[in-house]
């Protein structure tokens, strides 16, 4: 049913919970799990967006790799075929997840929700909201 599952993580408690749920699903369904974090470039160049991804600063990459390795090791310990990726994009995290899930052929995106409402959600935006509205595959939001 879900041969490939993409779980988006950012180091927050809600994303760790989403990863736990994704691992359980992947284990029960025999799915491949891709644990991904989006590195969204702080500024988008003026004019056309370049065809290459932005460069992840070394100190950021090192921290992200530590987080991803911990989650990947957890998944593998649970018997799940897993890989982790840092996905640098010239877009918002939500848009990055949607594009990468499509590019990787994922059937399901699992993400955590921080539960923002009202003005905070309007000002900050919601990755989960964006993914639900724009994804071409199924989406599971974990609270």
Describe the fold and architecture:
The chain has a single domain, classed as Rossmann fold, CATH 3.40.50. α3 packs across α5. It starts with a strand and ends with a strand. The protein has a 5-stranded parallel beta sheet with strand order 3-2-1-4-5, sandwiched between helices. The protein is built from 5 helices and 5 strands. The radius of gyration is 15 Å and the shape is globular.
Topology record:
Layout: E1 4-8, H1 13-29, E2 32-40, H2 58-77, E3 82-89, H3 93-104, E4 108-112, H4 118-124, H5 127-134, E5 138-142
Parallel strand pairs: 1-2, 1-4, 2-3, 4-5
What distinguishing features does this structure have?
143 residues; alpha/beta; Rossmann fold; 5-stranded parallel β-sheet; 45% helix
Strand order of the largest sheet: 3-2-1-4-5
What are the secondary-structure elements, in order, as H or E? Answer: EHEHEHEHHE
Return the CATH architecture. Answer: 3-Layer(aba) Sandwich
Estimate the helix proportion, in percent: 40-55%
Rg (CA only) = 15 Å
What is the number of domains? 1
User: Can you say what the CATH homologous superfamily is?
Assistant: HUPs
With helices defined by DSSP (H or I, 4 residues minimum), what is the helix count?
A: 5
Name the structural class.
Answer: alpha/beta
CATH topology: Rossmann fold
| Cα end-to-end separation | 23 Å
Average pLDDT level: 88
Q: Kindly estimate the percentage of residues that lie in beta strands according to DSSP.
A: 15-25%
- Shape descriptor reads globular
Low-confidence stretches: 119-124
